[in-house]
From TrEMBL:
This is Ribonuclease D. Residues 1-39, 327-349 are annotated as: Disordered. Residues 23-32 have a biased composition (Low complexity). Residues 250-330 form the HRDC domain. PANTHER family: RIBONUCLEASE D. It comes from the Bacteria. Gene3D superfamilies: HRDC domain, Ribonuclease H-like superfamily/Ribonuclease H. It comes from Streptomyces evansiae.
Length: 431
């Protein structure tokens, strides 16, 4: 081991401290040069891929102490869906574990063993869906990425946070690899183990910084909201999220997008590959704009001239033909059918007073967010601001505004800070 790893038994003890009296994170302090973190302190653990090894890991983590660092690696862009292909954990008294959820698809026993522990994750909402699929659901958590946002750090990626807060640099080279690869190469496993190596240390440092700024209670409310949130409902009309859809305006063209997207999704699911590898979004939009009448016309489109697409022209044209033959009454309507206010760009024409309310509210929220040293979207979601401004309470007094915010899911700390700002905006531009 190098000198860099000799101090890893207590990395926080030698890390730069985040301190000061300003409302945001301390900046400008003379920090020592960051130290590369090259190896996990106990080495790379073997990948757990059988019931006996999993049972031993469950017992070890159940008997560990303190928070448990949790991370998951997916194969986005390579495989269909967002399933986990590696789960990493670290806890005092148990060390680090790397678990193959393909070989061990039911980790509910591990989840139950950690039911009373706080789970430390970075960008928790990204990993929780795939962890839930394999039976791992936290009862309490600490999100170091969200903590960094609330503390006002300008860069909140794990590598940047570990470097700025703890003084170590993490390798960044394997974040976008195909984690469905088997066996996983040793450099990838090293990278994965290091992702949880200092997560609890980072959590501890951020807790102190949030407490210094008077924001710890805010963070705890946010973490509770994430942990208690129900699984998201299936998205309605997911084909409408095809990249480039803004170019598709006619209903017949929309039907082509829907048919091609649906066929592509079915093929991708069957093959277990990323839908974009079956047919790129750009090809779907190109075909929708052209609405080709036969295979020859389809093959003449640049996106379908590639060898991989030429072999499948018949099935793509069949989907286009289904869209071409649909009766008018079955064609999709333009625009996503979602509840809520219209796009803000349309407000000035449809409701000038609402547009004025929104402009004043946005300005007030922006000023408050700057004063509190946190991003606007973490102070209050833009969608909540739009909804309150589009359909304000009949009597825009503070109690009514607070109740409206509560109805849209705002947390107590958000309501406390944002209510005066929105009340002023609504009262100044009452309908």
């Amino acid at each position: 081991m190098t000198d860099a790893t000799d101090a890893q038994d207590s990395p926080a003890a030698t890390a730069p401290q985040v301190s000061g009296t300003d409302p945001g994170p301390a900046e400008g302090a003379a920090h020592p040069a960051p130290v590369p973190l090259l190896e996990p302190r106990e080495g790379i653990p073997p990948v757990i891929a059988d019931p006996e090894s999993l049972a031993a890991a469950v017992a070890a983590f159940a008997s560990g102490s303190g928070p448990v660092a949790v991370d998951a690696e997916r194969a986005s862009g390579y495989r269909y869906g967002q399933r986990a292909y590696l789960v990493q954990l670290r806890r005092a008294g148990a060390g680090t574990a790397l678990i193959d959820p393909v070989a061990c698809p039911d980790l509910s026993g591990l989840g139950a063993a950690l039911a009373n522990a706080e789970w430390d994750l970075h960008a928790a909402t990204q990993d929780l869906p795939c962890l839930r699929e394999i039976g791992m659901v936290p009862h309490s958590l600490f999100d170091t990425e969200l903590a960094g946002r609330l503390a006002g750090f300008p860069r909140v990626g794990l590598g940047a946070m570990v470097e700025n807060v703890l003084g170590y640099t993490l390798e960044k080279g394997h974040s976008a690899v195909d984690w469905s690869t088997r066996p996983l190469p040793e450099p990838w496993l090293r990278y994965a183990a290091l992702d949880v190596e200092l997560l609890v240390d980072l959590r501890d440092a951020l807790e102190k910084e949030l407490e210094r700024q008077g924001k710890l209670e805010w963070a705890l409310e946010e973490f509770d909201a994430i942990a208690s949130a129900p699984p998201p409902a299936p998205r309605k009309d997911p084909w409408r999220r095809t990249s480039g859809m803004h170019r598709v305006r006619r209903r017949r063209q929309l039907a082509v997008v829907r048919e091609l997207w649906t066929l592509r999704d079915r093929i991708a699911r069957r093959r277990d590959v990323s839908p974009g590898k079956v047919l790129p979004d750009a090809a779907i939009v190109e075909a929708a704009l052209a609405v080709p009448v036969n295979v020859h016309a389809l093959g003449a489109l640049p996106a379908f001239g590639q060898r991989a697409q030429k072999r499948q022209l018949d099935q793509w044209q069949a989907a286009i033909d289904r869209a071409r033959e649909l009766p008018e009454g079955e064609l999709p309507q333009p625009g996503a059918s979602v509840a809520g206010p219209p796009p803000p760009r349309a407000w000035a024409d449809r409701d000038p007073e609402a547009a004025a309310r929104l402009s004043a509210a946005r300005a007030g929220v922006n000023t408050l967010a700057e004063r509190l040293h946190l991003p606007q979207e973490n102070l209050i979601t833009p969608d909540t601001v739009r909804r309150v401004c589009w359909e304000p309470p009949a009597s825009p007094d503070p109690d009514a505004v607070a109740e409206a915010l509560r109805g849209y899911g705002a947390r107590r700390w958000q309501i406390e800070h944002v209510t005066p700002v929105l009340t002023r905006a609504l009262q100044a531009h009452a309908a």
